[in-house]
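Hi again,

Forgot to attach this to my earlier email, sorry! This is the prediction with iron/sulfur cluster bound. I've pasted everything inline since the attachment limit keeps bouncing my files.
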Amino acid sequence: MSWRDSAACRDLEGPNLAAFMLEVDAEAGETMRDYYRKLRIARYFCGPCPVQNECLAMAFESEGWGVSTTRYGVFGNMTPTERRKLAEKERANANP
Ligand code: SF4
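Structure tokens for the complex follow:
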């Protein structure tokens, strides 16, 4: 059994699953209000998810810890910006 089997988002489909990408489709009239609506959906599932740590580790494994790393979507209950800040903090702690 994989940790993914315990993921709170495991069976999501459609708009709820898409919300995790936090994409704002300006051409479709979406605004930052839609960004925050999507973020609330993602946090609703991520908040109580029992495999947040594993999910976050997977995100950093794939994104890396670099400065210029591209990051997309919510993983481990963290937005791309939150993961970037965590990576910066980890780098600063590793190189005081
Ligand atoms: S922490 Fe969030 S994105 Fe990761 S597995 Fe859990 S619900 Fe899914």
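Helices lie at 14-19, 32-46, 52-63, 80-94. The mean pLDDT is 95.

That should be everything now.

G.
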